[in-house]
DNA sequence: GTGAAAGCGCTAACAT
DNA sequence: ATGTTAGCGCTTTCAC
């Protein structure tokens, strides 16, 4: 058996390795090898491999071919396949920062899962904000004939699109560019803010404070608008003293604790979990307990923090996984009829123990 | 010139674009196109593109070719290149979880940076522990003819290697398998523990507690050994009551606060930042202040937490970035003369404000 | 100096 | 039902 060995003639000795079927160093078994072993033509092998439905191959032949494939541990060469079909199975993913935040990971994860399910593989490059890397990466994507490109940022904001992306099948993830017509997959900030407020309102809170971020962004404006809508829906008049700005960090949360205390709010929506964490600290230092004295809601759902605070923090999740997944969907099958080219992804409530019921 | 525009006939209006050299939708310009425009053969173009030194091309020809390349916005087809040279520029990266931890991100980032610098691109797949995905991923790596594979885990532990990886150029990152001869790139737990203890010792602390993790792992044994060594180096006798176990979470830290207080330790090494965070909480509830009453050192350097605690936490960093980067190095150029096939990566001290000096 | 030609491993008509 | 024949876009001898 393994007659193919001879057919290679007295050629190079470098692939005697093939001898034992243990797969070790099975130096590039090709279609031709399989064909020879099975005693058929390469096209036949190709046909059975791809299970083409039109071309009917005799069952016996199929078996023979399959046996050969297994014996030789044959794996098709994706590069050759891509070349001949003229179409790769790559999707490029450009992220501005995978390092400085746990978030990007989830976007990648979502994109990866979805792409995988459709038979695509992700070419990921992290630019860490470096425009040079960005340019090179796009070039590389081009050279690998990617099907499309996901351009993602770690927090939701406006970007100016690299020139070279304009000509490609690009979708923006967690960012947008109003000067382009590209599809943007972004979190639904408005309803996220509304959800946060409602979590408190539904438990009977009427005086709910809102700690906004100081950084200009869709999160800042969108969530505030959502909060207002939620109040309005309950017929609660807005009290400006209940709305305060803070840096979106633990420090920011600590800084506004006094204002929050003084406001007489029974519940407070924080811009993110980190702010909530700082707020917890500073509140406790004043002898104010969560949730018995005051209820708090976070935003983001950063597991490492939110789930392990004391008490565990009720929050609104930023749907990073879904952002990545929907991004891939949009690249593979561009949705039509979008408002403003946006695909809005919901921010779901995550109930834990930082909210108490008021009656 | 640009006669090709006509050859598209009256077709879709979407790529009349080719007309102006603005690159829009430049549908697959090939070597041949460039050759024709420049009035030379494809081989000539190939030669100038690759700046082959042996084949000397007339400077004038080079210029002509380069002009054509620029005009056409020509980019080589990496798939074709890889096919003909028989060697891809891919490195596969298998991670068990990018989702549940911020750490994997850093490994990816390091690997990505290093690979990029050497002209390689990463094929990343996140298995989230799913063996089926793992198998498929490895198959895929094979099909894309990757140069090598990085198998990485989110925390340092022993693994049993998937059968199919044994025949490949694989390096283990943040994990190891004692039954295989594969190179492992792992954090130097021993010296990490030693460093943590020394941070306290160097400030004059003599009674330093050690909160170990309950989960069996190189971190558990290695760091403890390092702590012991550090004590020994200072001629301090070990006090068993100073060594306690706890779950490696905030909850674990809170749980042992009382034991720590009772131990009379002036400083404590925590298994990780999260434990330190819980300890902070519980200590403060008892009116014990960090660092004036007690000094604490963390481990991991999880930025979101450590840098923003009150006071900011001094800690020992887990070198995830370097793990990924060195992993790529090992795949591309296997180091020789390793002890136990391990490449040990240092865990550096990160000084912040949770340690006070004793005199 | 430069071009012609032979593939790399595969798919897809078109024959048979 | 299966084999033959062209390429896909590129690199690389080997002639001229």
UniProtKB/TrEMBL annotation, chains A, B:
PROSITE patterns per record: HTH_LACI_1, HTH_LACI_2
One Pfam family it belongs to: LacI
Occurrences of domain HTH lacI-type (ranges): 29-85
CDD domains (alphabetical): HTH_LacI, PBP1_sucrose_transcription_regulator
Record key words, sorted: DNA-binding, Repressor, Transcription, Transcription regulation
GO molecular function, one term: DNA-binding transcription factor activity
PANTHER family (UniProt xref): HTH-TYPE TRANSCRIPTIONAL REPRESSOR PURR-RELATED, LACI-RELATED TRANSCRIPTIONAL REPRESSOR
Protein name, as recorded: Putative LacI family transcriptional regulator
